[in-house]
Design goal:
It is a single chain. Helix 5 crosses helix 6 and helix 14 packs antiparallel against helix 15. The chain contains 16 helices and twelve strands. It starts with a strand and ends in an 8-residue tail after the last helix. It is α/β, with parallel strands linked by helices. It is about 50% helix and about 15% strand. The strands form two sheets. Strands 3-2-1-4-5-6 form a six-stranded parallel sheet, with helices on both faces. Strands 7, 8, 9, 10, 11 and 12 form a six-stranded antiparallel sheet that branches. Bound molecules: nicotinamide-adenine-dinucleotide, 6-O-phosphono-alpha-D-glucopyranose (G6P) and manganese (II) ion. 6-O-phosphono-alpha-D-glucopyranose binds next to helix 12.
Amino acid sequence: GIKIATIGGGSSYTPELVEGFIKRYDELPISELWLVDIEAGREKLEIVGDLAKRMIKKAGLPINVHLTLDRRAALKDADFVTTQFRVGLLDARAKDERIPLKYGVLGQETNGPGGLFKGLRTIPVILDICREMEELCPDAWLINFTNPAGMVTEAVLRYSNIKKVVGLCNVPIGMEMGVARLLDVDHSRVRITFAGLNHMVYGLDIFLDGVSVKDKVIDLITNPDNAITVENVPALEWEPEFLKALNALPCSYHHYYYKRSDMVEKELKNAKELGTRAEVVKKLEAELFELYKDPNLDVKPPQLEKRGGAYYSDAAVRLIHSIYTDKKDIQPVNTINNGAIAGIPADSAVEVSCIITKDGPKPIAIGELPVAVQGLVGQIKSFERVAAEAAVTGDYNTALLAMTINPLVANDRVGKLILDEMLEAHKEHLPQF
Ligand code: NAD
Ligand code: G6P
Ligand code: MN
């Protein structure tokens, strides 16, 4: 049977992962599921782990669930390692979101200074995991969900010896499901050609049963009632003429770049009235864990869909399934570019539609991105690379460079103020600085 090790197993998303494994058990016979967490996550791990065991028992499947704080034991001989951890927990995320707002800059967990600092905290941990994988499960696939997923994948490709790595996000699959909903057809009939970077991905073309329906879909989404959104990003209305000129399907995160000042205002207002997203999520998570504790609950509760990452585990399980069975279907993932997108380094991570084989994702060649988006995508890739370098070296000047070249900051003086305050606030989780 297959052994899966899930790092950050105490995450509230785990029941969705387990549901996915149960649904596909016939073709993906998992015998061992090891959920790993740290001392701070012990209680969550136990609650969610018990729910996982009840779900598997109800399904009557021979999947052994292990709950552990011993990462090495979990990694030993694993076939797939999935990562969904949060260094510094939600308190660190709240700081990522609040501190930049004081300076009129967006705080967010994957974009801008928040994304930079989440990367600085996460990359040393993921590189430790990579070193342990080399020793304990050298043939395993690393399926990384930990944000900032694009920057983390970039760091693994550049600074570890692990080649079998795939970065995963729920945004592309959510865009496809959103289009299917708008067209009122089954998800399986819709295919979007994705290209770009994580949280900077565009749907370059959209097909229904193989026929392009891009113009129709773009026309539909010019109506704000039809916006395709994720729970964690406020969706302000697009100018219809802008969408038509862009001539591609933007993702939710593009709001931060193409409506920067409006989004700063919106997030400031939200922070005041509702709390930042981390503060909202703390409440959602507490509610979810109350439900998970119920010994009679043995399915994934629908409340999980209030989290931004809804359906991520569908994406993770179908990816593992296609690698395991050499299925050769098409899925959007973060992988090494290898020339698929012209103008982005061959050895960098991109988020792109891929054919999923037993040897991993094979990107579908895109060629050049539309001229209007080449610059921004290139800039974000530069940001991810410089940020990953700062995370590895712990070099202050490199961190300031990453901060300043981020288009949501774009100011070295303000960048330095934010950097200094955040380095101090997060110092417990930044041993490299
Ligand atoms: P969470 O706050 O519930 O954290 C998950 C678990 O990680 C916690 O139980 C925590 O104790 C544990 N953890 C913290 N540090 C750890 C370490 N060093 N080793 C092992 N475990 C550790 O987080 P969540 O909201 O479930 O999100 C998990 C991760 O997934 C985050 O990084 C988040 O940004 C990411 N995420 C990604 C996407 C995507 O599209 N790629 C979507 C949603 C969430
Ligand atoms: C999304 C993304 C994730 C993001 C998450 C946040 O839509 O794809 O990468 O970080 O959901 O969700 P949350 O519920 O934690 O705010
Ligand atoms: Mn994502």
